[in-house]
Design the sequence.
């Protein structure tokens, strides 16, 4: 008897199942191989960026820094970062993500550890500015790197799985701070000097891991099969074809896209709040609770763990539903409520709870928010567009700490500074709403506007 012919529907379903299996394998391998490495790298970066918040508890008194001088030094990091952001990402395109990200980690790790040598406000200002220049391009470089590996529908989860390093680095920093500050006098170094040394040098050493483990693209990954490489290439090309600014977009077009500026302003507002809180949190919590540095560190560590959980849950739900805006807007409103409450409350437990809510709300929206620019950027335009976005964003790191320092010196407390953080929180919510309305326009209208 002749063999029964294969049902075309069954054959097609079999092919779909095989492709789905190949795709799942490719994404799983990429996630396991790449996300932990860049997550650790970003965690070290964030820790080296804000560990002066714990160091300031003793450093400011030892070096006779005012709150204004400290806030200015903390903020100058972000001026150096912002000025070098776009050039750094253009160099990343030239040298490749692997080499350039490793270079960034090496130079900023050495400079971060060198902060232990500062003696005067001017030295502090110069070193913080140079540290910002050294780190410039790391975050947008990493986000661009993810666009070379993960399809659009996976990016909120991919971003959250490396960005979870931000709240977890707060946890590590909080746990280590008390012990490192307790080394005061060992080998002639103050506790805050030990903090800079022990938290800075591992970053420089980790640059070797970045160089050896990362691959610039799926085509260079020896640990992917030929079929997995082909699947990723098809998916990423399909996503690029849907982007409003893709490989064909020029540098100027990406830099001056209204949507790039809108998402940049959103992050500027949100991160102004985050950095204002982050660089002042240990001092605020120490004053409110009366606890030791170690116990304040454990409280910050707890906030970090809660933020990590909130980020994972919010990002996962955003990817499942495909909705981004509300997953960003609601946390921004909660940030405003939290910091206003902390600025008015007098009960220590209420202040601590409100500050925790503000921080956790900020962290929770980072996955969905970082997936938004990938809705309209792809290819080379993603590198330049993300750099432009982050250049706008980085000035928040100057404004936030400076605002808190000036308000502390002028009013004698952080209360007015905390209350003022409601303004950028609500502006961020409004900007995300406006951007969402812009993205909802028909694609042909958006293309005409971008080319205008």
Sequence:
């Amino acid at each position: 008897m002749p063999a029964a012919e294969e049902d075309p529907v069954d054959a097609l379903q079999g092919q779909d199942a095989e492709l789905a299996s190949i795709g799942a394998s490719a994404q799983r391998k990429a996630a396991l191989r790449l996300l932990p490495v860049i997550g650790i790298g970003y965690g070290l970066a964030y820790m080296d960026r804000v560990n002066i918040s714990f160091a300031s508890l003793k450093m400011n008194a030892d070096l006779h820094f005012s709150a204004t001088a400290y806030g200015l030094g903390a903020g100058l990091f972000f001026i150096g970062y912002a000025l070098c952001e776009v050039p750094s990402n253009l160099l990343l395109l030239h040298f490749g993500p692997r080499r350039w990200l490793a270079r960034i980690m090496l130079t900023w790790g050495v400079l971060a550890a060198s902060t232990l040598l500062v003696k005067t406000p001017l030295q502090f200002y110069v070193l913080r500015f140079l540290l910002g220049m050294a780190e410039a391009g790391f975050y947008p470089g990493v986000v661009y790197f993810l666009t070379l590996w993960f399809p659009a529908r996976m990016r909120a989860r991919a971003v959250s799985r490396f960005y979870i390093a931000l709240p977890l680095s707060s946890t590590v920093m909080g746990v280590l701070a008390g012990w490192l500050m307790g080394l005061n006098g060992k080998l002639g170094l103050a506790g805050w000097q030990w903090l800079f040394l022990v938290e800075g040098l591992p970053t420089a050493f980790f640059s070797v891991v970045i160089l050896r483990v990362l691959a610039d693209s799926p085509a260079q990954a020896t640990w992917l099969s030929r079929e997995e490489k082909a699947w990723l290439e098809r998916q990423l090309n399909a996503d690029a074809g849907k982007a409003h600014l893709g490989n064909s977009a020029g540098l100027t077009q990406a830099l001056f896209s209204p949507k790039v500026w809108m998402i940049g302003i959103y992050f500027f507002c949100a991160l102004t709040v985050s950095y204002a809180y982050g660089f002042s949190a240990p001092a605020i919590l120490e004053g409110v609770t009366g606890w030791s540095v170690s116990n304040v560190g454990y409280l910050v560590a707890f906030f970090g763990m809660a933020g990590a959980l909130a980020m994972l849950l919010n990002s996962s739900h955003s990817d499942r539903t495909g909705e981004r805006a509300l997953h960003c807007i609601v946390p921004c409103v909660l940030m405003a409520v939290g910091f206003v409450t902390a600025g008015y409350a007098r009960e220590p437990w209420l202040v601590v709870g409100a500050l925790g809510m503000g921080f956790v709300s900020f962290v929770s929206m980072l996955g969905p928010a970082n997936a938004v620019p990938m809705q309209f950027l792809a290819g080379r335009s993603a590198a330049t567009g993300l750099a432009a976005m982050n250049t706008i964003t980085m000035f928040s790191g100057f404004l936030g700490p400076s605002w808190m320092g000036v308000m502390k010196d002028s009013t004698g407390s952080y209360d007015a500074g905390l209350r003022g953080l409601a303004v950028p929180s609500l502006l961020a919510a409004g900007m995300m709403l406006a951007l969402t309305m812009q993205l909802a326009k028909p694609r042909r209208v958006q293309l005409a506007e971008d080319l205008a």
